[in-house]
Design a protein that fits this description.
With about 450 residues, this protein is mainly alpha-helical. The protein has 3 domains: about 100 residues, Fumarase C, Chain B, domain 1 (Orthogonal Bundle); about 190 residues, Fumarase C, Chain A, domain 2; about 80 residues, Ribonucleotide Reductase Protein R1, domain 1, CATH 1.10.40. The protein is about 60% helix and about 5% strand. The structure holds arginine (ARG). Arginine binds next to helix 6. This is Argininosuccinate lyase.
């Protein structure tokens, strides 16, 4: 194995093995081999077109790079984990194959602009993949909601039963959060999709390169406007890690609710056997491990965001080796999000819903108390008085083990002569939901409109 560095000329000694291992990034940047090769193909083509290198040599480089790509993908060429990074590995391999011609590839380029290009290309691909996973999740959630427009359940505040909603309304709340996650990613994509090559090590180059040609060949929107900025900044990684952290936070809250709903205390849902796990000692156990892992892994993605923020905060311009640490952090955040979504989506798709249990729980918490007060308000009583009377009625119910539905009308009348038989219709949970038909409310027609809105947004 040839362990000569691409920069060996100035040195009289070989790199210490421990330094080499410490310094090397190929163990984690090898995953960008495709982007590195595609970027180099665009660069070499441009060098030829601009007469910076001979056109024939440029073509030979492009063919050589294509050969390396094919050999990596077929398994014929293995990564050399003693190499410094994926960039030097591929350049060294090209030179092995093409000799002097291979050595011309790096004309008018530095690994500093090369790595900035590779990361941007890699992230573009990954962001698109995450976007389609989020769309899939939203589709599953809207389909689930459509089937549960009439499924009455209690909405909670402080984890105490509060007011009547439907299961569809609850699920659609998460759809809205995931829609914003999707929009955030689309926005981050715009700032990732800028082409840095041509910035050189920091001060661009004296060669008459054509950056726009490379930009178009690689499908970028624009080129970076300042060579120092282009090789120094990783704010696009930080922005993405931040968007992924918010997405994980939403997944984690949803997971927490699924854990609660799947418990015997709630039993609003049950996860499919294929998406649950057992216990080594308790034969009866069926645990919602996926959701707990997502909750746990959320911390990990926050950690990745922190790593990036802290890594960058004290760096003078331009490139510093600290920045090599960007990749493990952002790759880990991406991998974790994809793993989580890939487990979460089918888990939601296959879970069983128990509407009777939701309805039964909703019947117990006096969640129609607001509607009882509103009934009196509609009959002319000021809200604060209606609120007080309803509170007293509820106290009586609790003392006598009754509900607003089972309290006799005579008892109601003792509190106010405004009460008539139609109070029972007003506090019926189904009526209470139907009445909340304002835009954004839980009434089936309002939720249907929400579903429509989201479907239009993601298609
Ligand atoms: N492996 C390096 C990284 O990931 C590539 C850039 C190296 N540049 C340099 N001047 N040492 O950041």
């Amino acid at each position: 194995m040839n362990n000569k560095k691409i920069w060996a000329g100035r040195f009289t000694k070989e790199t210490d093995k421990r330094v080499n291992d410490f310094n090397s990034s190929i163990s984690f940047d090898a995953r960008m081999y495709r982007e590195d090769i595609e970027g180099s193909i665009a660069h070499a083509t441009m060098l030829g077109e601009c007469n910076i290198i001979d056109l024939e040599e440029s073509k030979a480089i492009v063919e050589g790079l294509k050969g390396i790509l094919a050999d990596i993908e077929s398994g014929k060429l293995e990564f050399d984990f003693n190499a410094e990074d994926i960039h030097s590995f591929i350049e060294t391999e090209l030179t092995k194959r093409l000799d002097d011609t291979g050595k011309r590839l790096h004309t008018a380029r530095s690994r500093n602009d090369q790595v900035a290009l590779d990361i941007r290309m890699y992230l573009k691909k990954e962001v698109k993949e995450i976007e389609s996973l989020i769309k899939k999740l939203i589709t599953v959630l809207t389909d689930l909601s459509e089937k549960n427009l009439q499924t009455v359940m209690a909405g909670y505040t402080h984890l105490q039963r509060a007011q009547p909603i439907t299961f569809a309304h609850h699920i659609m709340a998460y759809s809205q959060m995931f829609l914003r996650d999707l929009e955030r990613l689309k926005d981050a994509y715009k700032r990732i999709n800028i082409m840095p090559l041509g910035s050189g090590a920091l001060a661009s180059t004296t060669y008459p390169i054509n950056r726009r040609m490379v930009c178009d060949a690689l499908g970028f929107d624009e080129i970076t406007q300042n060579s120092l900025d282009a090789v120094s900044d990783r704010d696009f990684c930080i922005e993405l890690a931040s968007d992924l952290s918010i997405l994980m936070m939403h997944l984690s809250r949803f997971s927490e609710e699924i854990i609660l709903w799947d418990s015997w205390e709630f039993k609003f849902i049950e996860l499919d056997d294929a998406y649950s796990t057992g216990s080594s000692i308790m034969p009866q156990k069926k645990n919602p491990d996926i959701t707990e892992l997502i909750r746990g892994k959320t911390g990990r993605v926050y950690g990745d965001l922190n790593t990036l923020l802290i890594m960058m905060k004290g760096l003078p311009l331009a490139y510093n080796k600290d920045m090599q640490e960007d990749k493990e952090a952002i790759f880990d955040a991406i991998d974790t999000v994809k793993l989580s979504l890939n487990a979460f989506i089918p888990m939601i798709e296959t879970m069983t819903i128990f509407p009777e249990n939701m309805r039964e729980a909703a019947a117990k918490g006096f969640i129609n108390a607001t509607d009882c007060a509103d009934y009196l308000v509609k009959k002319g009583m000021p809200f604060r008085d209606a609120y007080k009377i309803t509170g007293e009625i509820i106290r009586l119910c609790i003392e006598n083990n009754l509900t607003l539905e089972t309290l006799p009308i005579e008892k109601y009348k003792e509190f106010s002569n405004k009460f008539e038989e139609d109070i029972f219709e007003a506090i019926n949970l189904e009526t209470c939901v139907m009445q909340r038909k304002v835009e954004g409310g839980p009434a089936p027609e309002s939720v249907k409109a929400q579903i429509e809105y989201i479907r239009n947004k993601i298609n």
